[in-house]
Amino acid sequence: MKADPYLNEFEHSKKLFLNELAIIHKEHPEIFTYTNPDSFNHDPIPDMMKDVREQNFETRLQIYLDQRMNDQQEWYIKKSQKNEKNFIISFICSFILHTIAFIMLLYRIQNPISLPIEIVVTCAGAFFTWGKSKKYKDLKAVYAFLSYELSIIKAESDDVKSNDELSDFVLKSENAFTRERITYLSRKKL
Question: CA torsion 51→56→62→68, rounded to 10°?
Fold first, then answer.
């Protein structure tokens, strides 16, 4: 997109970009466990990227909106919906299983010889399941919030009228994507 810090001529920007890729590779080697090994045989800066870089800022802005912003926003919406669905399924399954266990325990209480050990196990399972369900609900909220944030940022694209404004717009958008990754990783650790 020819955005900061890649505003300079191609060779200088290429060095910066390749250095950035090397840093990512060093700091996050786990990324490459999910990457097709054939993709490593290709130039990390394909001709398409070079062609986009040579376009005027209006074309680059449109490409960025169509192929980056819209794609990311759609991804966040799908993730939010998936986590909402996972939350509902998890909650319903937990509720049904715990209701069955409770009914079975009530039946068994009539036998004075047995101890209600299952009640303790059921309660422990309920707390565990509730925690997992809450995680899905929290992730759904994160993705929904970020999708909304992207819609606001995307609406600001109407005000982009120069290369410098495009650079600022791309940086603002990419910072929002970075916040999502940081938020996701911090919630994943919980």
Answer: 50
